[in-house]
Each structure stands twice: as structure tokens, then as C-alpha cells.
Design a protein that fits this description.
Blueprint: H1 3-14, E1 20-25, E2 27-40, E3 47-60, H2 61-70, E4 74-81, H3 85-96, E5 100-106, E6 114-120, E7 125-131, H4 139-153, E8 158-162, H5 171-183, E9 192-195, E10 209-210, H6 214-221, H7 228-242, E11 246-250, E12 256-260, E13 263-267, H8 280-293, H9 298-312, H10 323-329
Parallel strand pairs: 1-4, 1-8, 2-6, 4-5, 8-9, 9-10, 10-11
Antiparallel strand pairs: 2-3, 6-7, 11-12, 12-13
Helix pairs in contact: 2-8, 4-5, 6-7, 8-9
Length: 330
Amino acid sequence: MTTRFVTRARDLVQRFEGVPVLVVGDVMLDRFIVGRVTRISPEAPVPIVRFESEYVRLGGAANVAHNLSVLGARVSLVGIVGDDAAAATLRAQLAAAGINADGLVVDPGRPTTEKVRVVTERNQQVARVDYELDTDVSGSVERTIVEAVAGRARDAGALLVSDYLKGVITRPVIEALRASVERSAKTERPPLIVDPKIPHLSCYAGATLVTPNHHEAEVATHIRIRSADDAREAARAFRLRAQCEAALITRGEHGMWLSAPQAEESIPAVAREVSDVTGAGDTVVATLALALAAGASMIDAAVLANHAAGIVVGKFGPSTVTRDELLAAI
């Protein structure tokens, strides 16, 4: 890594503080029940977990917002929750993280999305129970989300879509985000970054940057990615298919491939011990969005995001990266 990049990166990270970012997407609560496995159940061939502790973390779009907040951004969050205890816990967690949750819309017809994981004291997952209803929002709930987006997007330095196929991201919601970009009074229009799901690919047209993972890029382009050349071809094809300005394919231990109008580049993975990849994509898009909003080039933003991902996979569960950790890594 060049001294020139390190200097640019330090300057960018110092500019993160207070940058306004709007996150729109599927918020979740991740609950972990931790215990010790001592024997196999006599009733069925499953382990018996003796309860030791329980804790919750922000997940999905809420984890994206949490990553942004820890990096210094001023975050607004739009999504849906149910009228239940999980929603109250989620709001409390967001408040503790300094995240504006006024944009959370209550849909009494569905539960707050909650993933309950049973894990051992060594962080080995035994089982997971999902509480969710993943049908697309519609009617008054969708209209309220669109209004929340329109009211919060005008001052944002970046707009970020966190799509987990849990119902929030619909065509009208994306259109509201695109319209906000076009109406922006800023000298440079705020970037629209999308962490995608392939069934919604046609909705993302006009986005600044879309970040499929290795598998999603293969499905969308019908190109098997086994080499850097394959990744370059797939990234170009993905840009055409999604009609977006740029695409960043995340490839796990193989790093990333960026295809943008002024840059096509392979970004090697940062060698670290991997504990858990859960939420790594959230950290990537959060860092990308904040870096772009702070004035980074597409390639510099991608390299910063790559380092952030390298840090977060060394932690268990949905996690965040601080500015000090990011600066130390580069």
C-alpha cells in the first residue's frame, strides 16, 4: 500500500464525522442464546444446550446504520417494524447507538424481523429461528415509507439501500430515492449505493454503485467466477444488467472486483483470521457510502471498505469497525 494512499485514507476517515447518510432497508434484531453443549438429547439426535447467557445486536439495515454511526456518520434510518417487544428492543438499541429511528414505520400486520441463534460458548451455531413476514409492503405502509424517504433524503450526503428481501425495498421506494438524488440541490449529487438481492435487480437502475457478492453476481450474469478475468467480465455484465453506474463484486477470500467508468481493478483480500462473516457485507456498504459521501474516489472507497471487511470478519456476529481500527489496518 502506497504512502500516498495512506495519507488520502487518513484524510478521508477524518472527514467521516458528521456526514449525513440515509439508510433504507430491512431492519432486524439478532438475538443470541449462548450455552454449553454437554450431551445429545435422548428424545432426538440433537445437542442439548445448557443456557448461560443471552444478548441482542442490531442486524440487517440496522447493522448498516450502526456501522455508519460508529464510523462517525449522522445516520437516519427508514424501515419497518412490528408492534411488538422486539421493536421496542430494536429502538432501544438504535437509540443507544445514536441512530435516528424516527423513520421506522410500524406495520401491525407483521412481526419485527428477528433472528434467534442458539450458539455454544465457542461461538458455534447450533440452530436459528427466524421471526419474519417477507411479503412486500403495500398500501398505506408503503406510502408512509416513501414519504419518510422523501423527507429525509434531501439533506443526505449518501443514500444507502440495504435489501434483505424482507419487504421494505419495492419499486416505489427505490423510485423515491432516485427522485431525491435528481432533486438534490447539492453541487454533486449524493451517491445511491445498493446492497442487492437478485430478485429486485431490475429496480436498481440508475444506482451509483451496486455490491453483489460472488454468488449473486454469478446468478445475475450466468458467468462462473473462478478467476480475476471472470470477475472482470461478470462485473461488466452486471453493470449492464442492473443498469447501474458501477458494480463491486465481493469475493470473500479472493477480495473484491470493482468495475466503474474510470476504474476497473481487483482488490486483494486483507489476510486475517476469519471468525464469522455475518454482517460483513453491511460493513462494506456502510464504509463505501460514507467514504463516497466524504469525497473519496470509487477505488479509494472500495479499498477502505475492503480493510473494514477484513477487520469485521475477525469478530463474532454482526459487528462494527471504529475509525481507529480502520486507520490502524491501513
